[in-house]
Amino acid sequence: MADNPEPHGYLMDYPSEQDAWSDSKKLQYEKNLFRVFYDTNYKDYIGSFTLMVKTGEVQSTPALCIDSEGFVVGQSSRPRAIMNPTKGAYGVMQAMQRSIFPLLKKFLPGFIHSMTTQELLSLIKSRITKEYKAISIDGSAFDSSQFAILMNYVDDVFWIKMRPFIREIIRHNWEAMHNVPANSIDVITERLMNALLQSKNIVFIHLPGVNAPRWPTAIEKQFYRDVEQAKKWKDRGPQVDWVYMELTGTTFSGHSTKTTLGNTLRTLCYSWYYIMRSGVAQEPWNSERVFSIASGDDCVIFVAPEYAQQVYDAILLLSTRNTQPQQVGLGQCIKEISIGKFYEMEFCSKWSHSHDGTLDSWNMCRSIQKLMTTK
Description:
This protein is α+β, with helices and mostly antiparallel strands. The chain has 10 helices and 10 strands. Helix 5 (148-174) runs antiparallel to helix 6, helix 5 crosses helix 8 and helix 8 crosses helix 9 (308-317). The protein starts with 22 loop residues before the first helix and ends with a helix.
């Protein structure tokens, strides 16, 4: 990179900086970061995943109706699966991103992860006028529609381009170690790159009494290596109460790089794809006609009013309204596309308003409705 960016801090300091983490989680990160440099057998920086149901989601209805089986009738909520990384994956892939995020924000202004409300407002105000329209994109089943080919074209290309800087991060930390590491800078870099470019993952699912066929030896070994409570099944074999799946593509919700970073990058690229196909701009990341912002799967495209309908029509044409697999555009489901004034954006559960329609009076805060109805 032209500016020769410097790595941010040291990897080994990363766990102690996470105030919300438990001491045991911090310790596991420290152990794994140490292993990156000194354990010649530590080669799998991703590990595997276990599946759990997302907690903390509260659904409400004014008329509760339960059928004879105990199921709630007349509502469409469903338990959502969360992929939980096993502890062997805690470490270098997360820690090195604190040097990556500042570069993304510098070179891709629409990458707005972790910005404060005031920072976000200042950024958008610097790129639009009060006449601009906001096209808000409400995606659905986003994680499950992140196909391997999309990750190849976005995530993999990004990490390959970042390889020199990733090696610099490793070198910066390698030279700061008190004792000479057992693994060389190039060995660590290659192991990290292998993990970053991997699109196939294994998930272990606890289903008591399933009595599945015997697993392949390699999968069984990985189960005993990765899953914390695995020793309970040493005698009987995990297949009596567990099943495993190998999935290619799909954003695993607990994945180190494909959730926050990867999803945001892909969402930005999808917005640029729609804009380019609309004919409004062939380099939308540099255009004065449009400005996209994204955080995870949330996206808003700000567009000059004379081009808003073109962009809207392209998004409508190149996406679907239902979650069934379809070969349309990039295979993304966008249940709702809305066009409004710049301050009528719908983004990251924020309430946005300008009392006189000017940029000066524009402000945002957390949606009161979301605060009152969700946990």
